[in-house]
Amino acid sequence: MRYDAFKLVEAINEIAPNSHTLIVGGAVRDHILVEECNDIDIATNADLALIEKHFPTHDIGKSKDFGVVVVLFEGTSYEVANFRTDGEYSDGRHPNAVKIASTFEEDTKRRDFTINALGLDVNGNVFDYHNGVADIKNGILRAVGNPLERYEEDALRIIRLFRFSAKLGFEIESKTLDDAIVAIEEGFLSRISPERIRGEFFKIAKRGEDLADFIEILEFTGALEVILPEVQALRGKKQSVEHHPEGDAYEHTIACLRVSRSDNPVTNLSILFHDLGKAVTYVFDDGRHTYFGHEKAGIPIVEEIVKRLKFSNAEKDAFVFVTGKHMIGHKIHELSKKNVVHLVNDVNWEVLKDAIYADEVCRGITTRGVEQFNEKINNAERLVAKLNGETNLKNRLCQFVTGHKILSLRPNLKGKPLIGKVKAKVEEAVIDSNFTLTEEQIKEIILDETAF
């Protein structure tokens, strides 16, 4: 727990001596679990106007209407909220109105789960009115009060429930789980904005193992079919046992996530999406399960997910790059130098490298197989490092061959697509020569009409 947070609680109590101020919510849960927590909320029955008078503050949207201000204290921003009870939630996310409460006990009745309905004072005393501490110790996720009412108030709580279960390894209490499934069946998930769903995925995707558990909970409860039907569609798409002993295309994806070595959410989400094309290319013919062209077929599927869940352009580029290129991994040593250079120099190379590692290792290949795989990748990177040298590769290529130089030698190509082929041919020859071609040799390649 950040010491500054305790200092702020003390400072609020000093300016409002009769108040009760606590660190609340997930920060207390993580404190009990001895987990790092950087997102710390504070709740109080002190007058917010008094707090604004003594500390630098600002609002987030209409947060002040809901009894919340952001306090900047010793370089860190903290949300400070009044104890409150909520009115009806007509939009399935925000209460229509709030009523200031005098005690933290009243405030906890509106919170989502018992493990988050906790308060901590500066003396280390925990305020627990719903047996949240016991649930933490027993590894139980339980809604505060009536689970269905909590989901009615904010349907994202269903997804948060599954995320907490996956991340913490906690079992979901039966009523809390049953009501979540009922809420999913009744269409509650359609009330959640795409941005908030995307946010939950990013929070859980820091570890591939956690993301795998999360996806399996989503599938078990029927939520995966609603949120990511493209991943659900992989279920039952069989694969040849000799190449994929881990199971069908869905089970392969889960296995990939479980062996991921990355803590980058973009990488782990790329792994989740990499084989989506198998759902639309599956063919069983002559006793064989095939997915010819699945990498190319997966690209528009990924693009649709990106559009629906509002991923950024940079995230889209990573997902598409991995989906389209992941089959290159075990054949990288067969590529031309030019193609290796373009692959390794791509901004998403590290993402692809971790994705194809997971794609290979999840099949249960031997230690020797892992060594061979790593050697292929290392050789490719050593090659590119050698070719790049001290100067940027792109600048060096521009130095050797430009469209202007080609047209000066072959003016008849102006305005024709063939100029691109000539340029690509010259670039490949330059790279294959380790940049040793002379100007005269480059000129001969450009003038050789029989090569195009």
- The number of domains is 3
- Structural class by sheet pairing and helices: alpha+beta
- Please count the helical segments: 24
List segments where confidence is low: pLDDT < 50 over at least 5 consecutive residues: none
| CATH T-level topology of the largest domain | Beta Polymerase, domain 2
The strand count comes to 13
Q: What is the CATH class name of the largest domain?
A: Alpha Beta
Task: State the separation between the terminal residues, measured CA to CA.
Answer: 67 Å
Radius of gyration: 28 Å
Main beta-sheet strand count, sense and barrel state = 7 strands, mixed
Q: CATH-wise, what's the superfamily of the largest domain?
A: Beta Polymerase, domain 2
Query: Which second-level CATH architecture of the largest domain applies?
Result: 2-Layer Sandwich
Biggest sheet strand line-up:
3-4-5-2-1-8-9
Structure description:
The chain has helices at 3-15, 26-32, 48-54, 104-108, 132-138, 147-153, 156-168, 174-185, 194-204, 208-221, 223-227, 229-232, 249-258, 265-273, 278-281, 294-309, 313-325, 337-344, 349-361, 367-388, 393-400, 403-409, 418-432, 439-447; strands at 21-24, 41-44, 57-58, 68-73, 76-82, 84-86, 98-100, 118-120, 126-128, 140-141, 171-172, 283-285, 288-290. The protein is of the alpha+beta class. The strands form four sheets. A seven-stranded mixed sheet has the order 3-4-5-2-1-8-9. A two-stranded antiparallel sheet has the order 6-7. The chain has three domains: 1-138, Beta Polymerase, domain 2; 263-388, no CATH class; 393-451. The protein contains 24 helices and 13 strands. The protein is elongated, with a radius of gyration of 28 Å. A hairpin with a 2-residue loop joins strand 4 (68-73) and strand 5 (76-82).
